[in-house]
């Protein structure tokens, strides 16, 4: 399990901590921890910021504060189980665990204050609730993506500093070139010049930002053309290339470490499981006992098929080289397939191919009712194929992890925006 979950081998349980280890790695524990984290996130829909009136989803302060405290207590219970399993030294030596404990203390104290006062106050720390979801077992891939993003920040910061430096130079140049034009409000001061060029980086104010200077002198277009070419097309593309290159390198290094960590865990397990007599392999009975602890939901038939998929040498015992594939083959799922299902899939693929051929040959010749109906059938087949392709792409774990990271970032910044700007009067603010 340490190899699969990327846990430290020092946390391997002893006879005294085995029950806590089994509890911390049980399916019920994972689901309970996930539900508590999701409830904490859902509370953002029911809490009323101090500067806003209650909406349709708002609930009394006592209710959402009590639910928040209950969810936090479940999270605390999970940390307590891991503390009993790992011990005080190993538990608090883990940086992520120590950070989440500190965040839990801050959020819990604020929830107690809200419950006692029976009134919401400025709580920007609510934006840290996604950390509890990220720390769950099911979000291990999300944690990995987030960690890689954080590790790739230093070269991004260097590029942002270079971008900021170039923008300052152009802002200063634009201020001295166009500040004497009273009709040009975009470059009336150095601060306005920098803000105008910063917005121009997104082309949101183009071409309005250059029109006052262009009306006065057509040669001013050179300044804006050079700025757009250097900053927008060159530096932004260079920033994207640096981010991609650094992120992929970190991703490769992480997968190498995960691969070696799994190999190390497999070797440790093999030393404990292989037989004493030559050829020193893992027999079927030992493998069956291992699977009863590793994945209790598997049936004996599935475990036997799993064993046979590993035992390519057909010796009846798994060698170390064969046992190295245990994590990859454990993802296999077995099911019975009847001949009728295979025929239906083949017929559908043939129908789709025939629809494509007929569409390209006949539909373009005449526009009749039959062709219109045939075209709709073809579009339906194309839709089915698109949905199948979409289902395959959804199975790409990395895309889902990135999507979850983006949604959690939206949640955090949304909470910060509500707390900071909900009391502002924005009516006619842009006039």
TrEMBL record:
The chain crosses the membrane at residues 29-45, 98-116, 156-178, 190-207, 219-244, 398-418. Coiled coil: none annotated. InterPro entries: EF-hand-dom_pair, Ion_trans_dom, TPC1_animal. Keywords: Membrane, Transmembrane, Transmembrane helix. One of its GO terms (molecular function) is monoatomic ion channel activity. Residues 35-252 form the Ion transport domain. Its main location: membrane. It is found in: Membrane. The keyword Disulfide bond does not apply. It comes from Pocillopora meandrina. This is Ion transport domain-containing protein. One of its GO terms (cellular component) is endosome membrane. It is a multi-pass membrane protein. It comes from the Eukaryota.
